[in-house]
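Slack export, channel: ligand-projects

TW: morning all. Re-posting the request from yesterday since it got buried. We need the structure predicted with the small molecule present, not the apo form. The ligand is magnesium ion; the SMILES is in the block with the sequence. No rush, but it would help planning for next week.
GE: picking it up
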Amino acid sequence: MRLAEYKRAIEQSNIVSKTDLDGVITFVNDEFCKISGYSKDELIGKNHNIIRHPDVPQEVFKKLWDTIKSKKTYISTVKNLAKDGTTFYVNTTVIPILDEDDNIDEFIAIRYDITRNVFLTKSLQQKEEELENLNSTLEDRVVQQTKELRELNATLEKRVQEEVEKNRDKDRVLFQQARLASMGEMIGNIAHQWRQPLSELGIILYKMKKIYKKHVTKSEIDFYESYDGAKKVIKKMSETIEDFRNFFNPHRPSEAFSIKSSLDDAMLVVQSTLQRHEIELKVKIQDNICIKGYMSEFSQVLINMINNSKDAFIQQKTDNRVINLEIRKFDDNYAIISFRDNAGGIDKDIIDKIFEPYFTTKHASIGTGLGLYMSRMIIQNSMHGTITVENVDSGVCFLIKVLVCKEKERCDG
Ligand SMILES: Nc1ncnc2c1ncn2[C@@H]1O[C@H](COP(=O)(O)OP(=O)(O)OP(=O)(O)O)[C@@H](O)[C@H]1O
Ligand SMILES: [Mg+2]
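GE: finished. pasting the full token output, ligand included:
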């Protein structure tokens, strides 16, 4: 009874098989079937080598047979092949069972599954090998990387220098571009300011030709007057260039000057034009007001406004052409210059745009759209004043407001 229980206990916890003396299977338990994948029917009567793995060398089996045939117990770990081609490992104990005459009756093999252990050990071994490999190459790699780093360091300085050089080039190009742009603007402004004196010169020369043609004695005086006039205009033009050379210099010193003298300067450049187009300029000056800024630029503002009125008079074919220029003090602190014409005014759709650069309603041969833009730059930026526009009665009115100069500086007017 006890024996049967032992047998059951062993069979339930182990993989058990029995073979005859030739290795033919005579018994397998359920565990054997489970691990090998074969059914009992497929196994019984077959040689035990049905689960032999091709990897296992012949000598191993020889040793097994030698051992068990000499009636000794064979203990070993065996690699086997299941029906589905997978490998399994078992710790095997093969015991020869002897009969009463001490002859081998059969062999009984008791095994337990160690596949998982073997695989774990294998992967552990593999990891160990990898680690070993890693360790052995580590030094090499450190040496290699140190070398690379050293090379990188050596070229770093050079590359930084190259980049700095590139940036410097870029800066230079940008600087050049900015310079060209402001030079372009300056040339545009000079061209704008020269247009009026040039036409003035044209008129003077035309007059001189007429005087010369008449050949009357009185003409000599007129001739010299015209000659002087032309010289003054030329002087004005070269001054314009000087002014613009300074135009972009934020540190140029400002001067105190009388509005009256600035107006006189402007008159030099526009009087022929006014006469020619039969424009009456009515000037009302309260007293000799002194302001601080740049006199020639201020007269350019006046010239620009007069020219704009002239163009408008021509365009509107105005009959009775009048410009009212009123210069007075306001609040004791400000000078107000009110410039009014009767040339029809400015369309309300565009009145907000007239101070924008290059805004013009005129043909390209007449206007560039820079006049009022420059005027506003001069009044706002250079003289910290304001210039505004509105339509009044039959024309426009420009209002300029600048601070009066109260210092005891000499005003040359
Ligand atoms: N007194 C005015 N009467 C009517 N329209 C004017 C008057 N002044 C200026 N404008 C309008 O404002 C626009 C801009 O004037 P601005 O002086 O800036 O340029 P422009 O006279 O057209 O050209 P530029 O002065 O450069 O030769 C003019 O084209 C015109 O339409
Ligand atoms: Mg203009």
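GE: first-pass observations. Residues 304, 307-308, 367, 371 surround magnesium ion (ligand 2) (CB under 6 Å). The mean pLDDT is 87.
TW: perfect, thank you
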